Amino acid sequence: MSALLSIERVKARYGPVEALRGVSLHVDEGEIVALIGANGAGKSTLLMTICGDPRAAEGRVVYAGRDITGAALHEMVDLGIAQSPEGRRIFPRMSVLENLQMGAFKGDPANFQGDLDRIFALFPRLAERRSQRAGTMSGGEQQMLAIGRALMSRPRLLLLDEPSLGLAPLLVAQIFATIREINRERGVTVLLVEQNAYHALRLAHRGYVLVNGEIRMSGEGQKLLDDPDIRKAYLAGGHG
Amino acid sequence: MPFAQALREAGMAAFVAAMLAVPLVGFRLADTSTGLRIDTRFDWVAFGVGGVFLGRLLLGLLRGRGPGSGLRLDLPKLPSNAGTLFGAGLAIFAIVMPFTPMADRYVVELAITVLIYVMLGWGLNIVVGLAGLLDLGYVAFYAVGAYSYALFAIHFGWSFWICLPIAGALAALFGVLLGFPVLRLRGDYLAIVTLGFGEMIRIVLLNWKEFSGGSAGLTSIPRPSFFGIQFTNNPDPGVIPFHEYFGLDFSPMQRITFLYYLIFALALATNFFTLRLRKLPIGRAWEALREDEIACRALGINPTNVKLSAFALGAMFGGFAGAFFATRQGFISPESFTFIESAVILAIVVLGGMGSQLGVVIAAGFLILVPELLREFSQYRMILFGLAMVLIMLWRPQGLVAHRDPSIRLGAAR
């Protein structure tokens, strides 16, 4: 299997602060890869750098055999990369339906109804709330909307930033089950960034541990889960 | 709010009022037979400052009663199609209005002015209300449209219907010209640059005398014709004027009524165009951009195109309105395109409730008619007008029509 996305020695800076210090990782077609790490380790920065904002100061981002290091954020959807950005960033004053419609902005209008039905099958809650203003929904529903909106562009690669952030444990399990479904049934490759290491590593085929802008460890999800250092650093206090 | 705090705020307000009122109201130049004399009116200042103090104190105390209390006008919950019905009612009224007994020359002229501002408000609504780009220089596009029509009509003798699209296209071009440098700006910074842009256009028109006539403006701009038939009492030889063509007696009302329907049609076209656009991807992208630019980019929307299209289309409608203004007045000068015009148009959009088409109509009616109706109060009318504005913004901080209709519904429609 060849890598769908590979990141080669990427460095990124915010002014003088070096957020990524030469990160290399790869995501194969059909995989779920989790990137775990503490707050401020550079997880979200890495996701943003893949999308070209901020641009990598050094190194290369290669997607489907093509160097996309210099591509702009809004060009990602055309390449088949969708993202649910940090903080969900749904459109609060627009309805659920309008939000999903924005997700299909670049798509073929002929696919819209079918895709919408599939999203509603995946997240029945969104179907119930289709006319509601997105900003008035609960955090979990907003997260479903953010993922659903990203899926509306029919991506090949889905980038998820902290899908479990601020959600009740039951909802976290539900969201992660849905991510697995998206991956299995539709063959969407997923790279997700998580602080919730337990859930993320149980879900993922492989995982990377990011510490201070560097990859500290990598391997199969279950192996990382069993690693005593990881248990100590990220899973202290049970299921996180 | 505790009494002491209300007292302190009232004191601050009174102080500011005093600082402003002493030079503005306190001294007055009086023209006497022996020359100019300065009168003082400190009693007026005292009344004014006292009024501000008491008013602010009262407001502070009213506000203090629990969260969300104070001055807030809760409109009754209306059925969802109330806006449509009201809009349709207004449109029907606008159609029959010139034939009602109340329609004398003054009323129809006033209605034309209101409609010009409705159209400008709808145009600016695209930029400010939908796309969320604060534009303080909208009058520049109005000016571009007016001067385009005037210059083409005077120098080339082209008719209104040929010049109208040209005026719109030129205004749209200027919209893009303004749009490029401000792509990265938001909020206050954007407002400052657009403000400067509006002034630039005005100052160029003021100083480029060979081109625009400078402060003297452009005169004898051709009046519109009824599809080639002129409105005039003393036509050139061989030309059949409007009243003879239709076998009527000559009356200046014929031309004014025609102008009225012309601006009504232009404004309605603006409205339909905007409503249609809101349901198209580009219109939804404007609204999404207002909500969250980063999310838009993540969804593959190129913000450059979206912003430029909003500037261009908003400017285009300003240009159409400008062309109409020029043909209606027959005379234009840079004085018609000062910053205060931009401010009034923006006030119409904000007061109406950002993005609301019906709100723009109500607000334009209010902002143009109230100063007219208050003419009797002569020098107090701007004070009363300002007071009315303050009260409305206190009652309805979201604007008169704050409700937003989704641009897409599922179920019934499909």
Explain what the structure shows:
Chain A has 240 residues and is an alpha/beta fold. Chain A has two domains: 1-80 and 155-240, P-loop containing nucleotide triphosphate hydrolases (Rossmann fold, 3-Layer(aba) Sandwich), CATH 3.40.50.300; 87-154, no CATH class. Chain A has helices spanning 43-50, 76-79, 96-103, 112-122, 124-128, 139-151, 169-186, 197-203, 221-226, 228-234; strands spanning 3-14, 17-28, 32-36, 58-63, 66-67, 81-84, 157-161, 189-194, 206-211, 214-220. In chain A, strands 6-7-8-3-9-10 form a six-stranded mixed beta sheet, with helices on both faces. Chain A has a four-stranded antiparallel beta sheet with strand order 2-1-4-5, covered by helices on one side. In chain A, a hairpin with a 2-residue loop joins strand 1 (3-14) and strand 2. Chain A is globular, with a radius of gyration of 17 Å. By secondary structure, chain B is mainly α. Chain B folds into two domains: 3-63; 86-229 and 256-395, ABC transporter involved in vitamin B12 uptake, BtuC, CATH 1.10.3470. In chain B, 66% of the residues lie in helices and 3% in strands. Chain B has helices at residues 3-26, 42-63, 82-96, 105-130, 139-156, 160-179, 187-207, 209-212, 242-245, 252-279, 281-291, 293-298, 303-329, 339-352, 357-373, 381-395, and strands spanning 27-32, 35-40. In chain B, strands 1-2 form a two-stranded antiparallel ribbon. In chain B, strand 1 and strand 2 (35-40) form a beta hairpin. In chain B, helix 11 (281-291) packs across helix 13 (303-329). Mean pLDDT of chain B is 85; it is low at 66-70. The A-B interface holds A 51, 53, 72-78, 82-83, 85, 89-95, 97-98, 101-103, 105-106, 113, 130-131, 149-150, 153 and B 281, 284-285, 287-288, 291-292, 294-303, 404, 406-410, 414.
